[in-house]
Each structure stands twice: as structure tokens, then as C-alpha cells.
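Forwarding the complex inputs:
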Amino acid sequence: MIRLNAFDMACVGHIQHGMWTHPRDQSTHYHRLDHWLDLARLLERGLFDGLFLADVLGIYDVLGGSADAAIRNGVQVPLLDPMLVVPGMAAVTTHLGFGVTANLSYEAPYLFARRMSTLDHLTNGRIGWNIVTGYLDSAARAMGLDRQQQHDDRYDLADEYMEVVTRLWRESWDDTAVRADRATGIYADPAQVRRIHHNGPQYRLDAHHLVAPSPQRVPVLYQAGASARGIRFAAQHAECVFLNGGPPDAVRAQITALREAAAPRRIMAFVGATPVMGRTEAEARDKLEDYRRHASVEGALAHAAASLGIDFEPFGMDEPITAQSNAIQSNVTAMARASGGVLTKRGLIDQFILGSRQKPITGSVDQVAETLISFAAATGADGFNLSRTVAPECWREAVEWLVPALQERGAYKTAYAPGTYREKLFS
Amino acid sequence: MIRLNAFDMACVGHIQHGMWTHPRDQSTHYHRLDHWLDLARLLERGLFDGLFLADVLGIYDVLGGSADAAIRNGVQVPLLDPMLVVPGMAAVTTHLGFGVTANLSYEAPYLFARRMSTLDHLTNGRIGWNIVTGYLDSAARAMGLDRQQQHDDRYDLADEYMEVVTRLWRESWDDTAVRADRATGIYADPAQVRRIHHNGPQYRLDAHHLVAPSPQRVPVLYQAGASARGIRFAAQHAECVFLNGGPPDAVRAQITALREAAAPRRIMAFVGATPVMGRTEAEARDKLEDYRRHASVEGALAHAAASLGIDFEPFGMDEPITAQSNAIQSNVTAMARASGGVLTKRGLIDQFILGSRQKPITGSVDQVAETLISFAAATGADGFNLSRTVAPECWREAVEWLVPALQERGAYKTAYAPGTYREKLFS
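Prediction (whole assembly, two chains):
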């Protein structure tokens, strides 16, 4: 059974930059609550497992040393807080899960634990957390620091953070602590509620968790790190991982490595995918061409430069791009590999514009359904994170065309499983 | 025209402790989203100006040096994050304002500014912020500190915080920065978006605000400080103040002092009130007696001890309570005054159990309406923050009985004014 998440972000341009200029696109409504309510209702109609919301703190100011290109093209800025987008959608759905990206580096564990527990209560157990540590110096400067911590140090901090928040979620309130006994007037039994003490190199805390046990206690934990240290972190903490995609062999190797590292703990793999569908293959190709005419080269470069930590403004289109000291090495390696070994500006533009980074799966609905099924079989992937092209039509087509085609092939559920997000995912 | 806010909190026991044991009370549903959706719909039906959500970080562990009494009686613990309760309610209402309490001491200005801007977008300009700096050492320990900052230092920090967040809200994006021009592909004009630099004694920041201008840009600013320093802060920053109530003369003096300090800036005053109504006066008195039978003395003491910063467990019922060094002086003074000059445990219990702290206004609907009207006239108050007794009946009676009675007397609007929360309040 293939699982589907919609992969979106509370901004104009998420991954496929420039699509907002398409006459049918409504991404500029990202700041309106009804935009999200409509999306949530639609995804639940399509039995999507979850809506996965990306987030980034800071701004993409690596290209040319300025944020101008990102601002001009709406590249992940302006950007709302994704946590606050969830409760409205929870109000109009019953089963859809919500995977929220949150950067732990700048959030006190005590307050963050309360936020997640609150969301788990309000969604009735439908919350997930995509654990990120950030990668932008612009975020550090926004927090009063000169620069961010080094890559591996961020993961050490994240390990300690996970220990603190997990203890707040799991150990502070016993399952039977809340009695709500009107006759005796005892709301909760103090003997079953305790302070968590933590005194580590990065965090200190001595406190009761503010929230009584929520349906899941711990949100479903997502992670997307691709470095060796990131994979080690995922193997230790994550229940689901998100992979950017690529050739089946490479994805299969990544998934296998993760599963081996996590064993015997089960880990679920979602792979990024961008379907561009038509009722016929020709219609799909025309649609891709139409979409690509709206793509923004400048937006793609602004995003790519920040993702790689390399200002490649000085490089010619086909000049090999040499990594700089503060480059994000796992992304550089992945993108060079996807470009045939050598990283060039032309190759990056190609990857970022409806290209190989989230390679569009272009074809008739039946072709796309079969491609996803065979990709999952070949790689061991559990499902896909579908990214946004021209919205809302990309979501409508996924729900109205792709899901029935997968169902016809026995590869997609016909009803939600009962229970929490975690129970649904792992049922 | 009298303005009404519902004063509530995402917990079992807010101010009137023990009411959750009443057979008709549903406060134990505080963690369910539909509980809040129902409340928001009801309040909007009653043309309430706002729902004002209290919050506190930390736990009430002053009484007997332990949190046991607070936990046992559900005294503001467990407690959800009030910000996350808002977007669901925004999805089912159009006009109701939301005043959210948030403690600035432990939130990075950069992240907090994004949260408030997000809420202002999602509510379409209906967000307010009750600015607090916290008063519990238990919150400081939860944040890895040994104790909180001193009272006046917290206000100095708050002044600087307000400067930073206000600059993010007002100065980072020009009104015309967002162009969303599909023809040219320009989403926003970089020349109209700028980094905010701040380098102060408490905060450093060098960042673009992440969110484009929201309908109000700055949330409606509420404040409730009663100390001299608190009043100075309110006079400088607040648009609305919240007063606990008390004899009309004292309230009038407070409001006058605030208005003089804030002049020529207009400042709006909401006074706490707890109506207990019946169709007749006798029915109201019976209802008050019924409610009081469910009141929790232990819960009231746990709350009072934390509010005053005094552990009065060692004191006899009628023994004068002497203030301790870390007492919250403005509260001690106010409560001693309300007890006739001398603070005793018996006096505190009386104040905290449907007593003079939020003195119940008990009577027939007409009597209560007239009391509110004459109180507002005598004090210059602009409206009332109605606190919760047995819910939801207290809210239903306010909407179905009190509002029509005020309307009959020409003292309450018959429709919402157009515009944002601020525009509605100050129209």
C-alpha cells in the first residue's frame, strides 16, 4: 500500500519556483485560512495520510550575498509559522495527519513540548514533527548570534533536545494521573505527576510538563537528514524519513542503509515526487511545458545557492562549481551526483526547475500510478511526499485522478484506518 | 456602549476553582478543539468583542513549597498553549477578536513576531496580545535559570522587547512591498523589504521579518500590570488594559491615572466581572450558593499563594499575613485593601472563592445589566472581561440574557463594526 503526503509550505514558492505566476495558481493565498481549510478537506477526501508542512528560519541570502532574489521571487519568504496553520485544518477534518517542520535550535524545550502536546490534543492525535536543526546563518543572526553552530554540533544539540522533550512528553504525567473525579474534587493525582530534571551540556530544566498526556504523547517523528551524522540521528529518533528522490538504485540504497541503522526499530520512508499528469501522455507533456514557461530561473538559483551554501553567482553556466568551506556537503554531493558528477549552474537550474531534484513524473494518470507503484517496489519506499506545482490543480488531480488509479491497482487504501496518526501510518 | 470580552484559559480551573466539579460544568473538555469552536460561535452570536485567553508559564508551587495542591485541583495546570487554540476558532467565526496572553521573557522576538503576524493573517486582523513578563520562579527553572529576573528588570527587558518586535512588524516590509505581479514575475520588491538591526543590552537581531504585512501589522496590545512600573509600561505601550475590579472609586482612580499617563494616546479599560444571573434575584442567589458549594478552598489557596508570592500555609486563618521578600507587592496591596487593610488567610479564601477578587455580580438579568452600566458610568470603564464560573452556562446566559438586556438599554451594539479587531474596538 502506497502512502501519500502532500508536501507544502505556508509561502508562495516552496520548491517549484515561479509557479505562482501561472494564471490558474492560487499559492498567493497562502496567508488566508480558507486556503488551508480547502486544502485539508480536499486531501482528506483523497485519503491522504498527511499534509507535510516545510519550514525554514532565516532567509535565502547566499546568492550574490543578498536576499533580493528570494524576496523578488517569493522563495520561501514571506513565510508563516506552520504550527499555527494546523488547528484550523484540524477543525474541518477528522483523519488527515499533519507533519510540521520545526527547527529545535532556537526553541526552548519546555515551550516547544507544550506546543506539540497542545497540537496533539487539538488534532486528537494527528500531529507529526519533522525535526530540523536549520542550516542558515541568516537565522542565527535573527537570533542574535553571529553564525549558526557547526553541522555535527547541531546534531549533538538535537540529541540532547530530543532527550529533554521526550522525557517531558513521556515521564512527567502518568497515564492515570488525570482523574477528573467530580465526587472527590481531585482533578489529577499529584503522586502521578513529576518534575523532569535535566542538567546537560546544552540544556537545563527542572519542571513539570505543562500538558497532561495527549493521544500520542510524542508526535510522529519525521527526519530528512542526508549526511552521515543525519542518518545516524534519523536511525536513532525518526519513525519516518523523507528522501528527496533520485534514481531507484540510489534511493533503495539510502532506504536500506537507514533501515539497517534503525533495526530492529521500523522506519518508514517517504520519497519526494512531483507528478505532472494528463488524461493522456501528450496532455501531460503539454502541461509540463506550460508549467515550465512559468518557472523562475532566478528563484531556483536563490534556493539552490542557500541549499548548497554556495554563492555561485561568480561561476559561468557550465563552469564546475567548487565547494566552499561552509557548503552543505550532503546536498552538494547529491546534486553533483544528479548532474552526472559535476556541479554546474546549468545543471542546478535544470534540477531546480521541475527537474531532477523532485523529478516530475510526467504522463497519463495510469502511467504515473504505475511509475509510483514500481518505484515503491524497486526501492522499498512506503510512500511519497507529493510536492506542489500549480496549486490547487496539482492536489485536485492527485485526489481525483491519481488516488482512484492507485486504488484500482490495489495499491492504495479505500478508507482510513482507525486511531491516531501513528496508528494509521503503522497499521 | 459597553464592550464585552470573555475571559478564559485553556485549562480546567482558571479563576473560580472547583467549578469543574459542578455536574453541568464542561471545563474538563478544555483540550478538545470542538469545546473552543462551540465557545467561539456562541460568543460571536452574542457580539462579544473578544475572547481573552489567559496564560501562565510555570506551575503554582508556592503553597507549602509544592505543586500538589495546584495539580490536585487543576489550578491552571494542565494548560495548553493559547496561541494554538485561536486558529480553529478563527475558522468558525468572522468578527470575534482573540486576545492571547504571551509571556515575552522566554520567547525570541524574531520567532514571536512571526507567530503574531501569522495569527493576524489567519484571523484576518483579529488578534490581540496581552503582554506579560511572568512572575513565577518555576517558569525560570523550566527555562534552565535559577530564578526569574527582578520585577523592574523584567519591565526593562519588556520595553526593549517591544521595540524589537514593533520594528519587525512596522519597518521591515513597506505597505506596497508585495506586488504579486504575475506578468513581471515580481512577487515582492526587495527595495521595499529591509533587515531590522538591533543591538541592545538584552536583545540582538539582524533580520528581515519573515512575514509580509498582516491586516493589523501590530496585534491589539493589552496589558494588566498594577504596579507603578507596570502602569508606566501600560501607559507607554498598551491600547487596552485589564483591571481586576474592586470598588468603583478605586477602579475609577486606576483608570484615571492610566489615562493621564497615556495621554494623548487613548487607552481602553476592561474590568474583570463575574455575573451570576437568574431570571429573578432569588434564582441568582440560589445559583451562587449552588456554585459556591463546588468551590475549592485548597485550589483558591494554591492560586492565591502563587499570585502573592507568599506561602501562607504556616499562618492561622485570622493571623495577619506578613509579606515576604519575594512577594508580588502590587497584588499584596490590592488584596489587603480588599480585605479591609489586613491580609489574612480567611480573607484570601473569601476573595478567591467567588469573592471580591472578581466579585460576583449576583442578581436578576436586569439587575446585572444595570449594575454593569452604572459601574461603567461611575468608573469610566469601556467594558468588562467576564470570567468563567460554571461553563458553558455562564457564557450562554451572558449571550442569551445579559446581551439583550444591555441592548434594550441602548448600552450594547446590535451589530459588529466593520474592520479589524482594532478598528472594531476603537470605532
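The domain at 3-59+73-175+188-278+359-425 of chain B is CATH 3.20.20.30 (TIM Barrel).
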